[in-house]
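Bench notes, bay 3.
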Amino acid sequence: MMAVFCACLSARAEDDAASRKYPLLSAYIYNFTQFTTWPSSASHELFSVCVLGHDPFGTALDPMKSRTVLGKKIAIHRYGDAGADVAGCNVLFIAKSAAGDAREILARLKNAPVLTMSEIDGFSDEGGMVEFRPEDGRIGIVIGLPAVKAAGISISSKLLSLASVKG
């Protein structure tokens, strides 16, 4: 009986942590849009923030729809299929559920002006641009600078100073 109780408490604590984690990650994503510059070839009518795979955010990204980036209204797109055409996204968050397809997705987007983000372990090692990872009870940021530069994207030195930078 005690084991079941402890398991329930543990599961609830994990649920509570997850319920706080994704609104925080949403804020991180938005802040990246404010400190990042895309090449003119990435200019679209709307600024697209996309999620690929099972969306862990729920409604946490929705407040972004009332904001702008570079004077453009933000649109949120969710794609469940790893084969979706995501080249029109300005920001692409690859969910953990798409981890098995991440390498192929990154290869398709190689040098495209799409800021790729994920919380998949080793994402920045595989060519991803921004990896969110647990670090001392908070969210740490690892930036794969070679992929960022190859895409013609520029991330502010202020933001780079807050992250671990590879390359």
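Next record in the batch:
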Amino acid sequence: MNMHMRAIMGCIILGISLMISACGGNTSAPTARGSVVFEIGSDGDTLTFKPNALNVSAGQQVTIVVKDNSSSLQHNWVLIRGGANVAQKIATAGLTAGADKNYLLNDPANIIANSPLLSAGQTADVTFTAPEAGTYIFICTVPVHFPQMQGVLTVSEH
């Protein structure tokens, strides 16, 4: 077999190997309707979430493990349906609701998911099904934490 034929055969074998591995699936990656877990928390005593951007697929089961990493501040995690104006209304309404109600009014219309109010060092799991494709804001509704303490959940079609 000459050099040219060996090169062609090598390319064919490589191509077949790549196709087989691509079709074989990767069990470590979530499927569009599979589940995914994210760890998110307050970034120390700053009024920020870390990470502040998450990406999922529509219909995917999502678990957010929320941790209050501050030394003394309370925080929650609230995923909002709607833009910044809706988030502002929910955060403002939280002032009226107070700590005993997690700084949330009993109107879940624009709240997709939320954690309980956490004290320093506490952790909570929040599980929900990702909504339709789009961009969603998550915030902390503890007074004066929003608008600084927010992030974005981007939901793709698949």
